[in-house]
């Protein structure tokens, strides 16, 4: 048989194929994804699991006229390849390459930009209502995973859709796992449905959806006939499909957590290509994960909470050691925050670990449930700053700005792994305010795990290097870039550590000493640390030259963290040039 995938450049080519050829196409598409992700990296298991579903959906529905909306979008590689991006797929997630998620500006087939989960039902319903109002005859299909449908937002969408007559099909891609195994009562319910042992009425029928399934999501003829049938059914419909995450690559099926996004691997065997980790510093997530266990051993009030990221946050170490005190609550950031608030009212010490970007989901809970009541919740915000290849949807660059304006909240960014450990130690000694501790993706510095903890004074900055003329004030791990940038420049460097409260005593000293001040943060310039320093200088009448370095007021695309830092002039070479120019300017003025 000819190579079928080779013949597909536009979707019409797919629709010309005979239905009996589609399993062969599925095989080729799977191999294509495996071969490229093996070397270029990215999300793997989810896309492998929906190869047949992807083909069937595009075969049956008239996309892009009919609107197909992927939830999260990490499973949409097959969709991208079939809809005109086969030849650019090599550039997936790389600087100036295509995005790892559906993106409206990239293709008319990408009907809705995604990356954060559980938005597909609301977005599809919005489109379906718009079609009705415009008198258009279209189908609207949301494809959502079993972990994503358990999120509050997905339920809000179902709740609304069930009282409309919108032409909406929700396809539940049930593989019983998110990044980590799915959790909660809904997971138990779906398992019972699959085993035929559920006693209760069908939840989705109870919400007025026309429910069908569960069906085998790898059986293309079955998928096609069911989708064809559902095309003729009016109103909200629900199709429950069962798939295997990682389907078609044995290793990925066997270790679905690891192969969610495995890094480089051997495309034939699936074997991971081990990175040499000889004396590599630990990842920040592991510094958090190991430290919380260490502290929890001595302090039984400590609780760990993660919304669906036990592996990514490394809270899994605590979940293994203290299962009754560490909770994976599923994709439920809002619930995670308010759960922590409730625990704090009862004297527990909740460490609520959320990726910086996903805390955006729970902004009101941070303000209304935590800060307003001044509850001592400890937010550990992982993946703060630029995260790299996940791109604009995932960069944790807004947190300093969005937390900055919340009363009572202390905002701290450790400059290294030791500072992260020491702050975690400090806060569990007892605080009477909420605190956000934000740290980046990736590795920091080598640490001596036996070094005794040292309490950190809240609101105190520190001079790291004494020089003259210019004071550089950094926040968090930008300290390292500054350190590398200024080795020969003779300027001063301060780790201000706290965005809030500012170390005003230290700032007065600095403004009385130096001709110019430069602030550096890996967060948005608008509303962040630098703007706090500008406001401080203004309200105290300091007239020094101040430069604010940080993330520009635009969405930052995908690329390696280093490439993106270069583009934002936050890498050590750019900082070095900046300070050299500033010194020249000061000397000439
Ligand atoms: C709001 C939000 N929280 C967390 C994540 C991180 N995340 C990405 S994929 C995923 C699991 C999704 O599981 P599921 O919906 O079952 O899809 P599958 O990977 O199984 O295809 C999670 C937790 C996210 N993208 N958005
Ligand atoms: C799609 C998604 O949201 C996650 O898979 C995310 O890519 C995880 O990021 P980390 O790789 O930083 O854990
Ligand atoms: Mg799943």
Topology:
Layout: H1 4-7, H2 11-16, H3 22-40, H4 45-49, H5 51-60, E1 67-70, H6 77-85, H7 120-134, E2 140-145, H8 152-161, E3 168-174, H9 185-195, H10 203-206, E4 210-216, H11 220-231, E5 237-242, H12 250-254, H13 284-298, E6 302-306, H14 310-313, H15 316-321, E7 326-328, H16 333-345, E8 349-355, H17 356-359, H18 363-371, E9 378-384, H19 399-404, E10 410-412, H20 417-428, E11 435-440, E12 462-465, E13 470-474, H21 478-485, E14 492-495, E15 498-500, H22 504-513, E16 516-524, H23 529-539, E17 545-551, H24 561-567, H25 572-588
Parallel strand pairs: 1-2, 2-3, 3-5, 4-5, 6-7, 6-8, 8-9, 9-11, 10-11, 13-14, 13-16, 16-17
Antiparallel strand pairs: 10-15, 12-14
Helix pairs in contact: 3-5, 5-11, 7-8, 13-20, 16-18, 21-25
Bound molecules: thiamine diphosphate (TPP), 1-deoxy-D-xylulose-5-phosphate (DXP) and magnesium ion.
């Amino acid at each position: 048989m000819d190579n079928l995938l080779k013949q597909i450049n536009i979707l019409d080519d797919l629709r010309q194929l005979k239905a009996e050829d589609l399993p062969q196409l599925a095989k080729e598409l799977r191999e294509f994804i495996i071969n490229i992700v093996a070397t270029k990296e990215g999300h793997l298991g989810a896309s492998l699991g929906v190869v047949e579903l992807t083909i069937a959906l595009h075969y049956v529905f008239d996309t892009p006229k009919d609107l197909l909306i992927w939830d999260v979008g990490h499973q949409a590689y097959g969709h991208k390849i079939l809809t005109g991006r086969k030849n650019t797929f090599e550039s997936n997630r790389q600087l100036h390459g295509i995005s790892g998620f559906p993106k409206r500006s990239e293709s008319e087939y990408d009907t809705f930009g995604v990356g954060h989960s559980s938005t597909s039902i609301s977005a599809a319903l919005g489109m379906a209502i718009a079609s009705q109002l415009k008198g258009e005859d279209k189908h609207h299909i949301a494809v959502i995973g079993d972990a994503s449908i358990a999120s509050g937002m997905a339920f809000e969408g179902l709740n609304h859709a069930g009282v409309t007559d919108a032409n909406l099909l929700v396809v539940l891609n049930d593989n019983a796992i998110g990044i980590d195994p799915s959790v909660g009562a809904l997971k138990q319910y779906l398992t019972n449905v699959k085993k035929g042992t559920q006693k209760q009425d069908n939840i989705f029928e109870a919400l007025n959806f026309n429910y069908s399934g569960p069906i085998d999501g790898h059986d293309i003829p079955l998928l096609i006939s069911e989708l064809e049938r559902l095309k003729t059914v009016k109103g909200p419909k629900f199709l429950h499909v069962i798939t295997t995450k990682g389907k078609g690559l044995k290793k990925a099926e066997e270790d679905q957590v690891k192969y969610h996004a495995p890094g480089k691997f051997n495309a034939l065997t699936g074997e991971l290509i081990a990175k040499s980790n000889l004396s590599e510093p630990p990842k920040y997530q592991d510094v958090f994960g190991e430290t919380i266990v260490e502290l929890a051993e001595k302090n039984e009030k400590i609780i760990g909470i993660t919304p669906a990221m036990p592996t990514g946050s490394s809270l899994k170490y605590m979940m293994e050691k203290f299962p009754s005190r560490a909770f994976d609550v599923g994709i439920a950031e809002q619930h995670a925050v308010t759960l922590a608030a409730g625990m704090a009212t009862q004297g527990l010490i909740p460490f609520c670990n959320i990726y910086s970007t996903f805390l955006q989901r729970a902004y009101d809970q941070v303000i209304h449930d935590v800060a307003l009541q001044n509850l001592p919740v400890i937010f550990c915000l992982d993946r703060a700053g630029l995260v790299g290849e996940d791109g604009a949807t995932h960069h944790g660059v807004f947190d300093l700005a969005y937390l900055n304006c919340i009363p009572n909240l202390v905002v701290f960014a450790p400059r290294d792994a030791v500072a992260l450990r020491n702050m975690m130690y400090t806060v569990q000694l007892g605080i009477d305010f909420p605190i956000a501790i934000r740290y980046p993706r990736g590795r920091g510095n080598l640490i001596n795990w036996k070094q005794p903890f040292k309490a950190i004074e809240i609101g105190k900055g520190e001079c790291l290097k004494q020089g003259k003329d210019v004071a550089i004030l950094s926040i968090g791990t930008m300290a390292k870039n500054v350190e590398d940038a200024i080795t020969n420049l003779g300027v001063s460097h301060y780790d201000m550590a706290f965005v809030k409260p500012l170390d005003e005593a230290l700032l007065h000293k600095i403004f009385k000493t130096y001709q110019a001040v430069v602030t550096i943060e890996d967060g948005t310039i608008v509303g962040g640390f630098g703007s706090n320093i500008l406001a401080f200088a203004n309200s105290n009448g300091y007239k020094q030259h101040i430069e604010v370095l940080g993330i520009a007021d635009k969405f930052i695309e995908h690329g390696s963290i280093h490439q993106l830092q270069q583009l934002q002039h936050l890498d050590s070479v750019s900082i070095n040039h900046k300070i050299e120019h500033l010194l020249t300017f000061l000397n000439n003025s």
